C-alpha cells in the first residue's frame, strides 16, 4: 500500500519518462520550425538577389547606345561587344544616366562590363568612355554562386548570334590589330561599331538553382 496522496517510485519514473519524451518532441518540433523558417528566409534572400541581378542587366541593356570606344590599349571597341573568350564578358555603352554636376542637367553615356570571376557576377563601370591605360573600373558584386554566363544576340533579320558584333556584320572600319593587349581576342575583322542587337538572351547557371533564362529587348534609343 502507498500513503494517501503520494506516488510510488515507479509512478514517478513513468511520469518523468513521459515528460522527457514530450519535452524532446516539443524541442524537435520547434527546431524543425526554426530550420524551415531559416531555409525559407535564405531562399527568399536568394530569389531577391537573382531578381536584382537580372533587373540590373535588363536596365543596362535596354539603355544600350550605339557609341563605340577606345580601350586602355587604344583599340576601338564596338558599342556592344561579346566575344568567344568568356573571361572578357559583355561590354556595352549605355545612356540614361543622370549628370550630377551643379548647374548642369541631362544624361551622359557610360561604359560598363559584365563578367564572371570566382563564381561571382560582376558589374564594372568606367567614369569615361575612352579610358587610359591606368584607369581601373568600379566593381560591383551582383550575384554569388554563378557557374556560367551564356549570351546570345538577336539581329534585325531574326537570326541569333553567339557573339556580337556578328561575323556577318557589314564592313565599316577595320579592327586595328596593333596595340591589342596580350591574350586579348579581336572581334570580327570589320563591323559597324554602332551596331546594336534588337534583343539579348541571357542564361545564368547557378550552383543551387541550375539554369535561368531571361530575354531582354533593346530599345535603341538616344541619349
TrEMBL record:
The keyword Coiled coil does not apply. It comes from Desulfurivibrio alkaliphilus (strain DSM 19089 / UNIQEM U267 / AHT2). Keywords: Cell inner membrane, Cell membrane, Membrane, Methylation, Transmembrane, Transmembrane helix. GO terms for biological process: protein secretion by the type II secretion system. The keyword Transmembrane helix applies. It comes from the Bacteria. It is found in: Cell inner membrane. InterPro entries: N_methyl_site (IPR012902), Pilin-like (IPR045584), T2SS_protein-GspJ (IPR010055), T2SS_protein_J (IPR051621). This is Type II secretion system protein J. Gene3D superfamilies: GSPII I/J protein-like, gspk-gspi-gspj complex like domains. Pfam families: N_methyl, T2SSJ. The chain crosses the membrane at residues 12-34. Belongs to the GSP J family. Residues 159-193 are annotated as: Disordered. One of its GO terms (cellular component) is type II protein secretion system complex. It is a single-pass membrane protein.
Amino acid at each position: 500500500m502507498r500513503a494517501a496522496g503520494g506516488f510510488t517510485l515507479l509512478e514517478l519514473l513513468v511520469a518523468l519518462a513521459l515528460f522527457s519524451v514530450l519535452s524532446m518532441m516539443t524541442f524537435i518540433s520547434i527546431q524543425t520550425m526554426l530550420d524551415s523558417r531559416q531555409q525559407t528566409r535564405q531562399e527568399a534572400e536568394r530569389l531577391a538577389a537573382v531578381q536584382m541581378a537580372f533587373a540590373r542587366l535588363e536596365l543596362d541593356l535596354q539603355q544600350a547606345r550605339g557609341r563605340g570606344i577606345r580601350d586602355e590599349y587604344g583599340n576601338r571597341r564596338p558599342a556592344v561587344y561579346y566575344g568567344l573568350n568568356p573571361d572578357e564578358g559583355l561590354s556595352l555603352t549605355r545612356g540614361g544616366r543622370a549628370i550630377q554636376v551643379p548647374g548642369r542637367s541631362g544624361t551622359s553615356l557610360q561604359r560598363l562590363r559584365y563578367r564572371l570571376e570566382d563564381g561571382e557576377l560582376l558589374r564594372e563601370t568606367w567614369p569615361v568612355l575612352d579610358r587610359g591605360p591606368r584607369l581601373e573600373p568600379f566593381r560591383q558584386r551582383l550575384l554569388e554562386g554563378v557557374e556560367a554566363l551564356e549570351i546570345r544576340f538577336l539581329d534585325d533579320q531574326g537570326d541569333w548570334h553567339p557573339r556580337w558584333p556578328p561575323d556577318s556584320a557589314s564592313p565599316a572600319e577595320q579592327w586595328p590589330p596593333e596595340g591589342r593587349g596580350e591574350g586579348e581576342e579581336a572581334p570580327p575583322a570589320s563591323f559597324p561599331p554602332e551596331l546594336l542587337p534588337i534583343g539579348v538572351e541571357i542564361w545564368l547557371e547557378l550552383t543551387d538553382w541550375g539554369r535561368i533564362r531571361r530575354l531582354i529587348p533593346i530599345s535603341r534609343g538616344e541619349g
